[in-house]
Amino acid sequence: MSLREAGQTNQDEGTQPISPLNAALFNKTSSLEYQETTPAIPFEFIQNRQDSTESELSTTYSQSQSEAYQKLMCRAPIASLDCMEEFSGRSTSLGSNPAIPVRNNATTTPGLRYKNLGKSGLRVSNVGLGTWPIFSPGVSEDQAEAILRLAVDSGINLFDLSEAHSGTRAEIELGKIIQKAGWKRTSYIITTKIYWSTKSEERGLSRKHIIESVQASLQRLQLSYIDIVLVHKADSMCPMEEIVRAMNYVISQGWSMYWGTARWSPVEIMEAYTNCRQFNCVTPIVEQAEYHMFCREKAELYLPEMYNKIGVGFMAWGPLSMCLGDTQNGERLWLPKGSFKTKSQSYSWTEDEVNKEERLEETRRMYDKARDISNLAEKLGCNAMQLSIAWSLKHEPVQCLLLGATSAEQLHQSLQALQLLPRLSTGVMLEIERILDNKPVRPPPISTLALR
């Protein structure tokens, strides 16, 4: 009896069809070599090939199994989705818990990515919207609403508020726009700050001030919770234990999901983390700091170390904090406001003259660098602002870059900088480094024995 006849006989009798290997064993017509080398072929596979011999069936079945295995291997999990986006040109898959739902009327900006903030599970767009210029006195409510709607339609899901820059008006106006637009609470992320200032009546970072500030922000925003509460500047007069315990209480009450810091030194961040571990409190997940072509040391040397050691992410601001400067030739160049830091004046007129000459020389060098950056941007087909944005996003430690705008057109121009990222090759980045000539270098460690 052949293998095909054995399978057909079992089907006619209404019993469970047996494999060809079992049929061969039952009739005692196979050898030990056949049993060891021939796999069991399903009956459905035999039934579809009635005119094939036994050897042809075995070969065809082995080939089909090999093809199925190759297809399975091609569908294996991929370690990084970001690398696949560079080839497909599509936006990042947000997984089972997306930060922004997919909308039919929205077109995600090319180059926009979603990353985990710090080592938390919170996914934010690599470009966030800073609201301090949006709610400035020169911007109307209609213009502010147009900017926010463009940001949401472009895929931006993070809005940063700062009491230090725009006061309480930003929270009030943003709350009204959110209620009017009817956006789902799960589709956007709000970050607001607890500002410590010596000029304010409610100064310091006491437990009282922190809790009252968070409750007041919730009322102005008309929200039940804030995603991230940032402590703006550290208070040297307040114990760190009181600060971390107050932030842990705010999170435990459900008023905030996470907390972070803004303009803190690495030593202060590490002290807060140590206190959180000691008193079993929630640790900060992000540090917000200035970062652009002329301010690099903290962001490139110390914050990556904070991320690797304690999981604190990096939210950058600064590429658009520029001012126009006039050169002797009548050209207008973009220069960062914080580039020229005035030194403290002394009581000696000779030292003042030396400092003045040093500042003038520094100003001339800065103008030369800005001019060269502008010329390079023209060669790349963009302006200096767009090149500054793309350069900041090119650096891996930057998980979210905050952009500001006073009009929808300005925000649209800034978002076009995302398309420059593939064009910033290694040669272009090296050329920028040559022009800037300010790459930060960690100072060599000094041995205590050498100091002795």
TrEMBL record:
GO cellular component, one term: cytoplasm
Alphabetical keyword list: Cytoplasm, Ion transport, NADP, Oxidoreductase, Potassium, Potassium transport, Transport
Molecular functions per Gene Ontology: oxidoreductase activity; potassium channel regulator activity; transmembrane transporter binding; voltage-gated potassium channel activity
Residues of the NADP-dependent oxidoreductase domain: 127-435
InterPro entries: K_chnl_volt-dep_bsu_KCNAB, K_chnl_volt-dep_bsu_KCNAB-rel, NAD(P)_OxRdtase_dom_sf, NADP_OxRdtase_dom
Annotated GO biological process: regulation of potassium ion transmembrane transport
Predominant location category: cytoplasm
Subcellular localization, as worded in the UniProt entry: Cytoplasm
Domain of life of the source: Eukaryota
PANTHER family attached to this UniProt entry: HYPERKINETIC, ISOFORM M
Similarity remark: Belongs to the shaker potassium channel beta subunit family.
UniProt name for this protein: NADP-dependent oxidoreductase domain-containing protein
Organism: Aedes aegypti (Yellowfever mosquito)
